Amino acid sequence: MPKDxxxxxxxxxxxxxxxxxVVAMSGGVDSSVVAAMLKDEGYDVVGVTLQLYxxxxxxxxxxxxxAGQDIHDARRVAEAMGFPHYVLDYENTFREAxxxxxxxxxxxxxxxxxxxxxxxxxxxxxxxxxxxxxxADCMATGHYIQRKIGANGAELHAAADAARDQSYFLFSTTxxxxxxxxxxxxxxxxKAETRKLAAKxxxxxxxxxxxxxxxxxxxxxxxxxxxxxxxxxAEPGEIVDLEGKVLGTHRGVIHYTIGQRRGLGIGGLxxxxxxxxxxxxDTHRVIVGPKSALSTAVVPVREINWLGxxxxxxxxxxxxxxxxxxxxxxxxxxxxxxxxxxxxxxLMEPEEGVSPGQACVFYDPDSSxxxxxxxxxxxxxxxxxx
Length: 386
Description:
Pfam families: tRNA_Me_trans, tRNA_Me_trans_C, tRNA_Me_trans_M
Keywords: ATP-binding, Cytoplasm, Disulfide bond, Methyltransferase, Nucleotide-binding, RNA-binding, Transferase, tRNA processing, tRNA-binding
Number of domains: 3
Order of helices and strands: EHEHHEHHEEEHEHHEEEEEEEEEE
EC number: 2.8.1.13
Helix content: 10-25%
Number of helices: 8
Radius of gyration: 22 Å
Catalytic activity: S-sulfanyl-L-cysteinyl-[protein] + uridine(34) in tRNA + AH2 + ATP = 2-thiouridine(34) in tRNA + L-cysteinyl-[protein] + A + AMP + diphosphate + H(+)
Domain tRNA-specific 2-thiouridylase MnmA-like C-terminal: 301-376
Structural class: alpha/beta
């Protein structure tokens, strides 16, 4: 690198005007601010929005992303700031890579997190390749997460604002992707600062509400979406206790999640409320029990993406902190690798409601660094979550 050429704000040895940045624009305030900020700094900005599902059907749905109104909003921001904007039709890709698996996972009794799969299989895969095809030097997004340069290259770190941190949803970001990605909002202390920037640039989305729920699930009603995707999926069955005693009936396993207490319609055992502790799609049974039955200490994890400096399976165990729900803080744990992509995670303090299909994300207990993560699964029938 020439000595007289300093790194720009994106960490590249180029003048901003000579640096092309593709910004993934969802139409919300976060990605719009990223695009406007980089354009204001003099970068060669190209905005790209993915149409992920039928925007005609979703046009009136507020709180979604990548649908009709949001595409319109992204285009208006690009026009106002004076940079090109493209809309790519990814409906088929999104359905095959995200929606179909979402439905199948629910039918299998898991609790999937489709937003992670969307980042992994669509935004940070296909869209990232599109950015490279456009001769971009990097791709920027509005995610609240940080990319820092460490002794061995780019590292993934939690956002400065813990309340906005999206590391749980981005654990599967690979090292190669991380080298190309930029997250300009990750260092901001609060969402209020993002909205101030939106107002500063005069963006039409400055006061736009944050997206809520899963984009293709209206009003958070997962079961109705799955019934449309898989007709006949909501087969009724029995609600049984841990001893196999039939306590009642239900209207379909897809209506229940691990840890659920309300809506069972069977009351409790005296003063002890009952919770869903296991789902058995093959037998159409919902197994319930006391809260203590939800406690899990050992979690099988697979499809691991490791972002540590040494190979994942280079040592017998790793002492880390893990997050097994997006809403829970990281807790101390020991990871024992089985292979390069599979492990057993021992929680130092058992947690309740650990569900197959959720992510288990690994954190450095002494810093904000993220070491990757994997997917919680049931293990063999002889080795359930315990």
